[in-house]
Amino acid sequence: MKKIVYLSGGVGGAKFAKGLSKIKNINLSIIVNTGDDEHIHGVALSPDIDSVIYGLANIEGEYGWGVINDKFSVNNELKKFYNLNFMIGDKDLALNLFRNQMLSEGLKLTEITELIKNKFKINCDVLPMSDDKVSTKLITKKSEKLNFQNYFVEKKAKPRLKNVVYEGSRKARVSKYILDTINQSDILIIGPSNPILSIGPILSLSAINQAIQNHNNVIAISPFVGKKALKGPSVQNFIDMEYTPDIQGLKKYYKNRVNKFYVNHGDSDNSLNVFEEQIVFKNENDSKNLANRILQSE
Q1: What's the sign of the alpha-carbon dihedral 97, 98, 104, 108?
Q2: What is the pTM of this model?
Q3: CATH number at residue 149
Q4: pLDDT score for 169
């Protein structure tokens, strides 16, 4: 049974996680970005963890975040008291209230995620990258310093970036379990998440970064199709950070980490370690088919 480690951000990463989780005879562990975690309305949110869990449980909302057919009664009541730029559904809020309570009782994020994962009967590991706080901060061209949700939700990811900082990453600890899981894995796959905003925080943890560099079978799935992003502001982020939004930029960003790349048809640079496949997921079968082709080639 092959041991697979998968690095994931939120919506984009969760789509491939859905297909990967349906592959039989593999031992899957998903390490999830927590750089987006923040307190909203006084409640501790872990958006990427929840997007992955909701996706694996097949209850994700129409746009990949939140819970399908959720209601926004609490959100609408809160609007009476102050302006809201961040919407969270009632069922989603209930999960986050549970997380908030468990944190207040002294449980670690990894322990809480395990409880939530089991509640949804998810069989694979879903692991926060660290139990310590790491915060993705966006430094704009105008020298503003924005929290992730402020940049992504309130400002709709429009400000051009001068720098991205992963605050707390130098002190954040990585569990022995995560490092052993990476070191013992047969394949490590980096999902089609935003490299800078979703995968970058994971790589900012030196212990994980070093374990990936020491791994001999790391695969990255491109988040780009042509010159466009599969999801979100990854193209503009890459350009702002002086990478080209294509296979050459990905090779530069993931230098010394990735052995093979999977890109969409027509996006290869004709290198021996770049493979063209259908990476646009219109449904779960598309991501499952890509997962099958990647694993069958190993």
Answers
A1: negative
A2: 0.96
A3: 3.40.50.10680
A4: 97
